[in-house]
Write a structure and sequence with these properties.
282 residues; alpha/beta; Rossmann fold; 8-stranded mixed β-sheet; two-stranded antiparallel ribbon; 10 helices; ATP-dependent FeS chaperone activity
Length: 282
């Protein structure tokens, strides 16, 4: 009898905790107007660069923006924002406070929780799911116009967890122009259709390169494939971001590209994508 009572008691405590967590999740989600998950079928196409620069461009337009880094194994968002030395805080309500890049741009990343930045993170699917949930429910995001979620490449645990946790999240797919990337885009589109996640649009990154010496335009990986794929699948084409070696240098040195190159073609291209997103959101 005692054992049964004890078991019942524990399970009711667990139920109570679960319902508190569900309520906290709902409360956080209610305050966020638009949630976009930036994804790609293939690694290294520039998802994190796009997430960070898009968030910055939206913040420059005056929107309140958060970036959630769910690339658990390779979290790069804090470094690309140049705030890699900051750590997440805890407020009086025992919620995590995001890293503040500016008054209207904040970020949360596993990187800002780990004691050693070089530790490899080895987590199984259910643990990742729990972290992604907590990154919404246990973080004091406050009122946001946009939450941009940077996910790892492919169609694994993380994008699935985002879809399961945040029913209104929409996908932004990043690709590079070459066919091998575009083939992976088609897999991402199928994934979104299978899990019933709305696809908001597609961005073609590393699209064309202007030689810094002679100014000649060179299509290293081709150009236009992203727009054609978007049109074939009936999804919005949000824009093209040129190839720019200084993005690499900024990422490597931990400085924010748009802060330094305020009027470069890449900065203008991100501003145009942000403008288009804002217009499409009405
Ligand atoms: N438009 C661009 N021009 C030049 N280099 C770029 C551009 N976009 C991204 N890069 C560089 O490409 C590399 C990969 O970018 P990034 O880390 O953003 O990609 P990712 O898709 O998030 O990678 P991962 O698959 O590891 O998650 C980085 O060195 C980054 O600086």
């Amino acid at each position: 009898m005692e054992m049964i009572t004890g078991g019942d008691c524990k399970s009711s405590q667990q139920k109570q905790k679960q319902s508190e967590q569900d309520a906290a999740l709902e409360d956080s989600l209610r305050k966020i107007k638009q949630i976009f998950m930036v994804m790609s079928g293939k690694g290294g196409v520039g998802k994190t660069s796009v997430s960070v620069n898009l968030a910055m461009a939206l913040a420059k337009k005056g929107f309140k923006v958060g970036i959630m880094d769910v690339d658990i194994h390779g979290p790069d968002v804090p470094r690309m924002l140049g705030i890699q030395k900051e750590m997440l805080g805890v407020n009086a309500n025992r919620k995590l406070t995001p890293l503040a890049y500016s008054d209207n741009l904040s970020a949360v990343s596993i990187e800002s929780l780990s004691a050693s930045k070089d530790d490899a993170i080895i987590w199984r699917g259910p643990m990742k799911h729990s972290v992604i949930r907590q990154f919404i429910s246990d973080v004091e995001w406050g009122e946001l116009d946009y939450l941009i979620i940077d996910s790892p490449p492919g169609t694994g645990d993380e994008p699935l967890s985002v879809a399961q946790t945040i029913s209104g999240a929409k996908a932004i797919i990043v690709t590079t122009p070459q066919e091998v990337s575009l083939a992976d885009v088609r897999k991402s589109i199928n994934f979104c259709q299978t899990i019933k996640m709305e696809i908001f649009g597609l961005i073609e990154n590393m699209s064309g390169f202007k030689c810094p010496h002679c100014g000649e335009a060179i299509d290293m990986f081709g150009t236009g494939g992203g727009e054609k794929t978007a049109s074939d699948f009936g999804i919005h084409f949000l824009g093209r971001i040129p190839f720019e070696p200084k993005i690499v240098a900024c990422g490597d040195s931990g400085s924010c590209y748009q802060e330094i190159y305020k009027t470069s073609p890449v900065t203008l291209a991100f501003e145009a994508v942000a403008e288009r997103m804002a217009k499409l959101n009405g």
